[in-house]
Design brief:
heterodimer; A: mainly alpha; 8 helices
Chain lengths: 235, 486
């Protein structure tokens, strides 16, 4: 009883202190002021330096490409860790009856599946020209598989093929970076010609990397869904 | 010249390589991980050789800082990265001598990426990139802690995940505040312009960063996750948590507070929290009946001691702190690995079960004693020199109250460690036939013990590196100059 009372008092004190700090931050932080050293540089010189029309893509893949490689790794890690933890819990009840989705859903899925894959590919191939890029493109591809899993509980995706595709693409990403290191002494430097902004073949290595990221994110998320699905069926 | 970025590129390549072959070959992960860690060790030796002459600046993407991410490897980073790689090498050698955790390939993928994340945190010169590597380290740690999949492992991992995620979001908010004020993410650039940041924003951002990395480096009262995560994780993972994952959090805290922020409040903050952690953790360790939990609390206490000595803020103090990081990392790696090995074969948890253990298995017993004596700072071990540096530096700055607290906690520490040694070397109660120690395990543990004794006898082989590292951490102007001017 005494302990609860004490804890509440401490909670209130911390709440007030944090509130005061955050209030002072909101008061003093001048949002929207023209202090953006990096932002200004990217907007003014970005297109010229890299040949990519979509500035956001340029920042993600070239200026901060090393972070993007890290983020791809974070996703890979999350999928690996989930797989590692679920590995012991799966395959407990294999022969459980599952209900199929209705005829309409399963037929529609057959038509939609290739369309969604095509749309996802479009998004990551045109990442340097239009909004989108590797991550959203990969997610769209994974939604196609999600739809397939929903429509047909017996649908089978080979884990081996998924891990081969994500492994290959990951290695190619690192190799792309190492080519830059070998040719220009800079990891992940764009070693392809910039081309003319606005065309499909422009932006140096951006399209290459976005295709790799697209495939990687797509296969990773599909693998993740696959893991979760089998787990759900097992329990 | 060997670029330090190769450590990261090579580890990533290896991780994806394991993913490629994971469903084809079951044993590929073990071999690839061993090769990767060995190559990384060689690279980091080259890196420290170069960094001792001149700090290494690596650009990525072909743009100069602050417009792109750079790695800034000075003497401190190079020394700690080498330390991490040596520890990782000993751990992977240890792992060669026993069965891996299942699924083995995924375990080794997480292991490689964790070591990569820690090395990346120590080498990067960009504050957002630091966050990315912090995430890589943290997420792989959650997976590694949970990998044994029993109740204790899942509980530890879950606590760690929740508390550490809060920490990383606090860090992200702090980065956003700084970016909103300065419009730049490069650490040297921020350090140069830090006076332009509004005072209250600066202090808020600093406190957010401090809380985030106090969580990671197990400082009281932010360390609720630590004992459970230590207890739940398996042998190698516990050694990693204590050996370098917590040190990476501490490194980030030191780099940001000494070089980037450089505000005076940090000293009293570090001193207060460090001493509190040291005393509370040592007193908690005294009460434990389980060996692993006792070691976990001792680990937390040592992190507090290191933080406190850093809080004194002179160059000699930083020197002593880095030396203590070295000693603690090796001692705890030996202790946790040896305990883990014994636990796998016997299932012993309680300290009482170790009665007579040192007589029955003289080899492992001697290794554990070496690690304990090193941690306590006995002569001929490396720990002696760091303890003496700590005490004399505290005394020189006339912080006698701090000295009293440190000595008090150190006495408590000596008491419970000697209690363990006494039990371990008393007459054995049962005659469980001693099994032979596996060759790879023996080699791995002996290597670490030899390093500790060699440094204890000839401290000059390492003090040179630590001195330059301490100098690098103290000299803010020099850091700005060589990153932005170079």
């Amino acid at each position: 009883m005494m302990k609860d009372w004490f804890r509440n008092i401490i909670g209130v004190i911390i709440f007030v202190i944090v509130g005061i700090f955050l209030y002072s931050v909101v008061i003093h932080n001048t949002f929207g002021a023209d202090k953006m050293v990096l932002g200004n540089h990217y907007v003014k010189d970005g297109v010229q330096e890299t040949g990519a029309q979509n500035i956001v893509t340029t920042i993600v893949v070239l200026y901060r490409g090393f972070d993007t490689l890290g983020e791809v790794t974070v996703l890979f890690l999350a999928a690996t860790a989930l797989g590692a933890i679920l590995a012991g819990f799966r395959d407990k009840k294999k022969n459980k009856k599952k209900t199929r989705a209705s005829l309409i859903v399963s037929i529609t899925t057959k038509f939609l599946f290739p369309m969604i894959i095509l749309f996802g590919s479009y998004i990551f191939i045109h990442g340097h020209l239009t909004p989108g890029g590797g991550f959203p493109g990969g997610v769209v591809i994974a939604t196609a598989f999600l739809l397939m899993f929903l429509a047909d509980p017996y649908a089978f995706v080979s884990e081996k093929k998924l891990s081969i595709s994500e492994g290959t693409v990951g290695m190619l990403y690192v190799i792309t970076g190492l080519v830059g290191l070998y040719l220009f002494q800079n990891f992940l430097e764009s070693f392809l010609p910039t081309g003319s902004p606005g065309t499909l073949l422009s932006g140096g290595i951006i399209p290459v990397i976005y295709v790799l990221i697209g495939i990687k994110v797509g296969s990773e998320l599909t693998g993740l869904l696959n893991n979760l699905r089998e787990d759900e069926n097992a329990i | 010249m060997v670029s330090p970025i190769l450590i990261i590129a090579f580890s990533l390549f290896a991780a994806f390589f394991i993913a490629f072959f994971s469903k084809i070959s079951k044993g590929i992960g073990r071999i690839v991980a061993f090769i990767t860690v060995s190559v990384n060790l060689v690279i980091s030796i080259y890196v420290i050789q170069n960094a001792m002459v001149k700090p290494i600046l690596v650009f990525t993407g072909g743009f100069k800082p602050p417009f792109a991410i750079n790695l800034a490897v000075d003497q401190l980073s190079a020394f700690l990265v080498l330390l991490v790689q040596i520890l990782a090498f000993c751990m992977i050698s240890y792992q060669m001598g026993k069965k891996g955790e299942l699924p083995e390939n995924k375990f080794y993928t997480l292991f490689i990426l964790n070591v990569m994340g820690v090395s990346g945190m120590m080498m990067t010169g960009d504050i957002f990139n630091l966050f990315v590597f912090f995430e890589i380290t943290a997420i792989s740690s959650y997976g590694l802690v949970a990998i044994r999949k029993d109740k204790a492992a899942l509980e530890g991992s879950m606590k760690y995940l929740i508390i550490s995620s809060i920490g990383s979001s606090l860090f992200l908010i702090a980065i956003a505040l700084i970016y909103g004020q300065l419009g730049t993410l490069n650490m040297a650039d921020i350090a140069q312009k830090i006076s332009m940041v509004n005072g209250s924003v600066l202090i808020t951002a600093f406190l957010l960063i401090v809380s985030a990395f106090f969580i990671e480096s197990e400082i009281f009262p932010f360390n609720g996750w630590a004992p459970d995560a230590y207890e739940g994780s398996n042998d190698t993972v516990t050694a990693m948590l204590s050996g370098f994952i917590s040190k990476a959090g501490l490194y980030a805290l030191l780099r940001l507070s000494f070089i980037v922020f450089g505000i005076g409040i940090k000293n009293s903050l570090f001193l207060t929290f460090g001493i509190t952690t040291f005393i509370i953790a040592e007193l908690s360790a005294l009460r434990q009946t389980r060996l692993k939990r006792m070691l976990a609390y001792s680990s937390i206490g040592q992190m507090g001691l290191i933080l406190a000595i850093m809080g004194i803020g002179t160059q000699q103090a930083v020197f002593a702190g880095i030396f203590q990081i070295f000693n603690h990392a090796f001692s705890k790696a030996i202790l946790f690995l040896a305990f883990g090995y014994i636990f796998i074969h016997t299932g012993w948890r309680e300290i009482e079960q170790f009665r007579g253990f040192g007589r029955k298995r003289p080899f492992l017993g001697a290794l554990m004693s070496i690690a304990i004596l090193n941690l306590l700072g006995f002569p001929i071990f490396a720990g002696f020199w760091s303890k003496i540096a700590i005490l004399s530096e505290v005394g020189r700055n006339a912080k006698f109250l701090v000295l009293v607290f440190i000595l008090f906690a150190a006495v408590v520490e000596v008491y419970y460690y000697f209690r363990f040694l006494k039990i371990s070397y008393s007459a054995p109660v049962d005659d469980t036939a001693p099994k032979k120690t596996n060759f790879a395990v023996g080699i791995s543990l002996t290597t670490m013990a030899v390093i500790v004794i060699a440094v204890g006898v000839y401290p000059s082989i390492i003090t040179n590196f630590i001195n330059s590292a301490a100098m690098a951490l103290m000299d803010k102007a020099h850091y700005i100059q060589w990153v932005l001017g170079g």
